Amino acid sequence: MPEISDKELPQSVRPYWLKALSAVEVKNHAYAVSLLQAILKDNPGFLTGRELLRKCEGYLTGGPKKKQKIFGMESGGPGMKLQGAAKKDPASAVPLIEKELEKDPFNDGLNDLLHDCLLKMELFDSAAFALETVRKSHPENTKSMHKLALFYLERGRADAAGEVYNDILKAEPTDAKAIKGSKDCAAQHSMQRQNWSENSSVRDLMKDQSEFQELEAASRAGMTKDQMYEKRDRLIARYNEDPNHLGNAKELAHIFEQLEDWENATTFYDWAFSLSNGDAALKTKGRQMSDKFIAQQMATLSAAVEADPGNVELRTQLDEVLKARSAEMVANAKQRVDENPTDPQLRFELGSALYNAGDYSAAIPHLQQAKSNPHIRTKVLLLLGRTFKAKSMFDLSLKQLSDALADLHGMDNIKKEVLYDKGLIHEEMGDKAAALDCFKQIYEVDYGYRDVAQRVESSYS
Hints:
Blueprint (H helix, E strand, L loop, with lengths): L13 H12 L3 H14 L4 H15 L16 H11 L1 H12 L6 H13 L3 H14 L4 H13 L3 H14 L4 H19 L7 H4 L3 H12 L4 H17 L4 H13 L3 H14 L4 H28 L4 H28 L4 H13 L3 H11 L6 H14 L3 H14 L5 H16 L3 H12 L8 H7 L3
Helix pairs in contact: 1-2, 2-3, 4-5, 4-6, 5-6, 6-7, 7-8, 8-9, 9-10, 13-14, 14-15, 15-16, 16-17, 17-18, 18-19, 19-20, 20-21, 20-22, 21-22, 22-23, 23-24
């Protein structure tokens, strides 16, 4: 059974999908849920619809519940009955599970059962979403996350599995399986990027055994700045002996990156890419270093202008460099998207570059496409909110920031940014009460964040 996009929905169903979208826009989430349930009953592979359904249910139920039974199942409850139905006929059980999820969309056990059913139906992305829902809403449920990591590994996605193992370690730092899994996934992902075979190893890429041992020892221990400079000098000497050795070029690029020498890091990552057999990871690294070098140049010039604000010549130079560098970053980002147009991360980078260049209208469609990646979704929504704000489209900006807040639970730095930006927009719209509510939420947990203390405390005087 294939997974489908909204464009692949049957013509008879598309009007209901559009009605569901309209219902969400006017915050009629209950009506949207009823429409989406009907759509998914006959189109279980419509992942976008399932994601929107869960989001609407989250609005209606108030988010994840703090306390649950183990894996969310109670003896004799609906979850236990559904397990029997799922074993007999997974496809028929899915609508029944979804109906129960309306009451508790983040229930561990029901989402786990939904995953099993969708997996049997070979709806792999949808199956992943079910366990990702548990991972996001119940980060303490390491049992579910281990299952998700194994699911990704079985599908050759070591990078995704590694991220899950890292999340497990945040909840259980001593989890031996997660520690080993994280290391194994990092190695496996690196091997996949390098196109190494199962029978090859890093040792095969090194000039000799002593070189491998030296680099292995350096990687095990965190180096001081002086030690990094010493390693850099050794690598330069080795590079000068054989400039066409891929291992030398890569190690030299990496040490320059650690030293935050972005210009030389760019040069050697680019050279390593030219020596490799089209290693896309090296090409991406080179572009990332180039972007950082450009950003560093702009920051240096900006600092000089701030130190000497009356220097018209310096200001003109800064403006010219900013314009040229912004255009260069946009061009680099566009090239990356052209090479891999389906990568949401690259869309986000292009949207960011266009936003920084002041081309807000061009940034919007790329940021909208980048929202499909759950790992960067909140960052994308924050930037999209800022983009709409820059166009004075405050209602649309608030919508993006509200969506971002719906995905955030703990008060981390990204949530503070979203709340702060949301407060500023409410302020510009003259809604002082809503603005103050945003600032107070930050004030309650972080007194020193920007100027929230002054804003909150002045409201009482």
